[in-house]
Design goal:
By secondary structure, the chain is an alpha+beta fold. 31% of the residues lie in helices and 26% in strands.
Protein backbone atom coordinates (compact mmCIF):
# COMPACT_ATOMS: atom_id res chain seq x y z
CA UNK A 1 0.00 0.00 0.00
CA UNK A 2 1.29 3.45 -0.85
CA UNK A 3 1.73 5.90 1.99
CA UNK A 4 -0.71 8.79 2.05
CA UNK A 5 1.00 12.18 1.57
CA UNK A 6 0.86 14.44 4.63
CA UNK A 7 -0.04 18.09 4.49
CA UNK A 8 2.04 20.76 6.18
CA UNK A 9 0.80 22.40 9.39
CA UNK A 10 -0.12 25.51 7.39
CA UNK A 11 -2.11 23.46 4.87
CA UNK A 12 -3.92 21.69 7.71
CA UNK A 13 -4.77 25.04 9.37
CA UNK A 14 -6.12 26.35 6.05
CA UNK A 15 -8.37 23.33 5.56
CA UNK A 16 -9.62 23.52 9.16
CA UNK A 17 -10.35 27.25 8.70
CA UNK A 18 -12.37 26.51 5.55
CA UNK A 19 -14.38 23.87 7.43
CA UNK A 20 -14.94 26.30 10.33
CA UNK A 21 -16.15 29.01 7.89
CA UNK A 22 -18.60 26.57 6.26
CA UNK A 23 -19.97 25.39 9.62
CA UNK A 24 -20.29 28.93 11.00
CA UNK A 25 -22.12 30.07 7.87
CA UNK A 26 -24.51 27.09 7.99
CA UNK A 27 -25.28 27.48 11.70
CA UNK A 28 -25.63 31.28 11.66
CA UNK A 29 -27.57 31.44 8.40
CA UNK A 30 -24.81 33.36 6.64
CA UNK A 31 -23.55 32.79 3.12
CA UNK A 32 -21.32 29.75 2.63
CA UNK A 33 -17.67 30.24 1.71
CA UNK A 34 -17.30 31.43 -1.85
CA UNK A 35 -15.85 28.40 -3.60
CA UNK A 36 -14.12 30.45 -6.29
CA UNK A 37 -12.49 32.70 -3.68
CA UNK A 38 -11.46 29.72 -1.53
CA UNK A 39 -10.03 28.02 -4.61
CA UNK A 40 -8.01 31.14 -5.41
CA UNK A 41 -6.76 31.41 -1.81
CA UNK A 42 -5.74 27.77 -1.70
CA UNK A 43 -4.53 27.71 -5.31
CA UNK A 44 -6.86 24.92 -6.32
CA UNK A 45 -3.96 22.80 -7.39
CA UNK A 46 -1.56 20.70 -5.42
CA UNK A 47 -2.88 19.23 -2.17
CA UNK A 48 -6.04 21.38 -2.06
CA UNK A 49 -7.05 20.85 -5.67
CA UNK A 50 -6.51 17.12 -5.91
CA UNK A 51 -9.67 15.03 -5.78
CA UNK A 52 -10.13 13.33 -2.45
CA UNK A 53 -12.69 11.80 -0.17
CA UNK A 54 -13.06 13.72 3.08
CA UNK A 55 -14.96 13.34 6.34
CA UNK A 56 -15.67 16.09 8.84
CA UNK A 57 -16.15 14.99 12.45
CA UNK A 58 -17.50 17.39 15.05
CA UNK A 59 -17.10 17.03 18.81
CA UNK A 60 -18.75 19.07 21.56
CA UNK A 61 -16.72 18.90 24.78
CA UNK A 62 -15.27 15.57 23.67
CA UNK A 63 -18.56 13.96 22.60
CA UNK A 64 -19.41 13.15 18.97
CA UNK A 65 -21.69 15.87 17.57
CA UNK A 66 -21.72 15.00 13.88
CA UNK A 67 -19.74 13.18 11.23
CA UNK A 68 -20.46 13.20 7.53
CA UNK A 69 -18.23 12.92 4.55
CA UNK A 70 -17.70 12.20 0.94
CA UNK A 71 -16.10 8.82 0.24
CA UNK A 72 -15.42 9.05 -3.47
CA UNK A 73 -12.50 11.13 -4.74
CA UNK A 74 -14.63 12.56 -7.56
CA UNK A 75 -14.29 16.27 -6.86
CA UNK A 76 -11.51 18.57 -5.64
CA UNK A 77 -10.83 18.51 -1.91
CA UNK A 78 -12.01 22.04 -1.07
CA UNK A 79 -15.56 21.77 -2.49
CA UNK A 80 -15.91 18.29 -0.97
CA UNK A 81 -14.71 19.68 2.37
CA UNK A 82 -17.22 22.55 2.31
CA UNK A 83 -20.07 20.14 1.53
CA UNK A 84 -19.01 17.69 4.25
CA UNK A 85 -18.59 20.43 6.88
CA UNK A 86 -22.01 21.87 6.08
CA UNK A 87 -23.62 18.42 6.26
CA UNK A 88 -21.83 17.39 9.47
CA UNK A 89 -23.31 20.33 11.39
CA UNK A 90 -26.79 20.18 9.89
CA UNK A 91 -27.69 16.83 8.33
CA UNK A 92 -26.22 14.01 10.43
CA UNK A 93 -29.40 12.01 11.13
CA UNK A 94 -28.10 10.98 14.56
CA UNK A 95 -28.06 14.55 15.89
CA UNK A 96 -30.09 17.75 15.73
CA UNK A 97 -28.42 20.57 13.80
CA UNK A 98 -25.67 22.43 15.64
CA UNK A 99 -27.03 25.58 17.31
CA UNK A 100 -25.26 28.96 17.35
CA UNK A 101 -24.62 28.70 21.10
CA UNK A 102 -22.68 25.45 20.51
CA UNK A 103 -20.24 26.85 17.94
CA UNK A 104 -17.61 27.94 20.46
CA UNK A 105 -17.51 24.43 21.99
CA UNK A 106 -17.50 22.43 18.76
CA UNK A 107 -14.11 21.20 17.56
CA UNK A 108 -13.43 19.97 14.05
CA UNK A 109 -11.48 16.91 12.93
CA UNK A 110 -10.78 16.22 9.27
CA UNK A 111 -10.08 12.84 7.72
CA UNK A 112 -8.76 13.03 4.16
CA UNK A 113 -9.10 9.60 2.61
CA UNK A 114 -6.69 7.62 0.50
CA UNK A 115 -7.64 5.08 -2.17
CA UNK A 116 -9.67 1.95 -1.43
CA UNK A 117 -8.01 -1.46 -1.42
CA UNK A 118 -9.84 -4.79 -1.11
CA UNK A 119 -9.67 -6.77 2.13
CA UNK A 120 -9.61 -10.56 1.89
CA UNK A 121 -8.45 -11.53 5.39
CA UNK A 122 -8.32 -9.89 8.80
CA UNK A 123 -4.53 -9.80 8.41
CA UNK A 124 -5.09 -7.09 5.76
CA UNK A 125 -6.45 -4.69 8.42
CA UNK A 126 -4.03 -2.70 10.58
CA UNK A 127 -5.70 -0.96 13.53
CA UNK A 128 -4.81 2.72 13.68
CA UNK A 129 -3.79 2.79 10.03
CA UNK A 130 -6.85 1.60 8.10
CA UNK A 131 -10.45 2.65 7.93
CA UNK A 132 -13.03 0.25 6.53
CA UNK A 133 -15.89 0.37 4.03
CA UNK A 134 -18.30 -2.53 3.50
CA UNK A 135 -20.84 -2.73 0.67
CA UNK A 136 -23.63 -5.14 -0.19
CA UNK A 137 -26.30 -4.03 -2.61
CA UNK A 138 -27.47 -0.59 -1.52
CA UNK A 139 -26.11 -1.00 2.00
CA UNK A 140 -22.87 0.71 2.90
CA UNK A 141 -21.02 1.23 6.16
CA UNK A 142 -17.83 3.17 6.78
CA UNK A 143 -15.73 3.59 9.90
CA UNK A 144 -12.70 5.88 9.98
CA UNK A 145 -9.32 4.56 11.23
CA UNK A 146 -9.52 6.46 14.52
CA UNK A 147 -12.78 4.71 15.53
CA UNK A 148 -11.11 1.35 16.17
CA UNK A 149 -8.39 3.03 18.22
CA UNK A 150 -10.89 5.05 20.29
CA UNK A 151 -12.87 1.90 21.12
CA UNK A 152 -9.78 -0.35 21.48
CA UNK A 153 -11.13 -2.82 18.92
CA UNK A 154 -9.12 -5.57 17.29
CA UNK A 155 -9.45 -6.24 13.54
CA UNK A 156 -12.29 -8.78 13.94
CA UNK A 157 -14.40 -6.41 16.03
CA UNK A 158 -13.63 -3.49 13.71
CA UNK A 159 -14.81 -5.46 10.67
CA UNK A 160 -17.92 -6.69 12.52
CA UNK A 161 -18.80 -3.15 13.65
CA UNK A 162 -18.37 -1.82 10.10
CA UNK A 163 -20.80 -4.49 8.87
CA UNK A 164 -23.26 -3.58 11.64
CA UNK A 165 -23.03 0.10 10.66
CA UNK A 166 -24.19 -0.91 7.17
CA UNK A 167 -27.14 -2.78 8.67
CA UNK A 168 -25.59 -6.13 7.76
CA UNK A 169 -24.74 -9.20 9.82
CA UNK A 170 -21.33 -9.06 11.47
CA UNK A 171 -20.11 -11.82 9.12
CA UNK A 172 -21.47 -10.21 5.93
CA UNK A 173 -17.96 -9.54 4.63
CA UNK A 174 -17.47 -13.35 4.52
CA UNK A 175 -20.86 -13.89 2.87
CA UNK A 176 -20.88 -11.75 -0.25
CA UNK A 177 -20.35 -8.20 0.98
CA UNK A 178 -17.27 -6.42 -0.35
CA UNK A 179 -14.87 -5.08 2.28
CA UNK A 180 -12.37 -2.31 1.55
CA UNK A 181 -9.64 -0.65 3.58
CA UNK A 182 -8.22 2.84 3.21
CA UNK A 183 -5.77 5.14 4.94
CA UNK A 184 -6.70 8.62 6.10
CA UNK A 185 -4.75 11.70 7.04
CA UNK A 186 -6.44 12.77 10.27
CA UNK A 187 -5.94 16.17 11.94
CA UNK A 188 -8.06 18.58 13.90
CA UNK A 189 -8.42 21.68 15.95
CA UNK A 190 -6.71 21.67 19.34
Amino acid sequence: MMMLPRRSTDEQRTLLAIARQAITAQVSGGPPPDRDEVNRQTSNSGPHGASAGVFVTLHDTGQLRGCIGHMEPDEPLVPALIDAATAACSRDPRFPPVRPDELARVTIELSILGPLEPVTTLDDVEIGRHGLLVELGHRRGLLLPQVAVEHQWNAAVFVAQTCRKAGLSEQAWQRGAVLWKFEAEVFGEP
